[in-house]
Amino acid sequence: MAKVIVVTSNIAPYRLRWCEELARFYDVTIVYTKDHDYERDDRWLQKGSAVCEVIKLKNDRDVFDPICFDVIGLLKKNKDACVIFDGYGPKTNLLGLLYCKLSHRANFVNVDGYPYASGKALDLVKRFVISRLCHSFFCSSEATKKHLVSYGADPERVFVHNFSSIRKAEIIDKLPSAGQKRQLRKELGIETEKKIVLGVGRFLPLKRFEDLITAVRNCESDCILYLLGGQPTEDYLKVADNDPRIRFIDFVLPEDVLKYYQACDLFVLPSETDVWGLVLNEAMANGLPVIASDRVVAALSLIQDNGFIFKVYDTKELQRDIDLCLQDANQEKMAQRSLEIIQDYTIEGMVKRQKPQIDKYLGICDK
Predict the structure, then answer these.
(1) How does pLDDT run across 212-230, given as a tens digit for each residue?
(2) 168-342 is a CATH 3.40.50.2000 domain
(3) What's the CATH number of domain 3-164+346-362, 3.30.413.10, 3.40.630.10, 3.40.50.2000, 3.40.50.1000?
């Protein structure tokens, strides 16, 4: 079986799912550099696979961005494999890209989205890497392709897939009934008949959950905000000011997060910057209307009559959007629209779009 090597920083669950779907067609090896991520709880990361070989590269310390020189030896050893670098930013990936460039070896770089924050020096480095070191790209959306091309990528070598973290079977068949929502809330210990707004993510400054808290506190709708993602910071507690409408929930396992999605009425992602925002995919797959800031790249592809995109930091606009989404007629219509849109955003769909390019690289022709 033809071999594919995926070089990544750490193994997030959605990365593992993607690699294991690739493993239906190829002999896949996942090569990673660290066991920790400052943006994620360690319990969330993966370290093994039932169908892929998993190799951790050597580095003295599991630092924020380690450089692992043995990636070069691994690439030399697997000279006939198709190499996919998960991102062009990590130091180990840059080293691998440089080796591929010097050895005239084609490769793919997988790009989820793009950050909004940048600077002149960083832009120059980024332009050099994208235009000179990277060969071909898989990317999450047309907006991401446009961004890559603006930094010098050859548009003929940028291949779009619909980025996702979910499998087709995980998209619910129909919206939960009122009775099903009540049962889920009971299981989760939620005792309210009010509309629930949900936010999911680590309590980091760039997530701007303080804006969501402020918006909900000013809503005309009779609603409650649930924030899932760990222990709230003092700043968040100060903004919440002991308001009973604001509820903080510590780390939740993936299977329980699904229950929260289906027990709630609206999902909001107010990030200051988000390279993609997979939680939008997940919320839509569970039948929720969605709201996101204009700095969330996923919103540019996923929000189409199923919610709103608001200007980042604008809590008044966010408050108005929440009130509109929570109106009964709008809520059900937008929820149904989310289920329709998300059908095209699955792990299987990603690999289906990538496979022709990988096969072309490997010289494989479908029989």
Answers:
(1) 999 999 999 999 999 998 8
(2) yes
(3) 3.40.50.2000
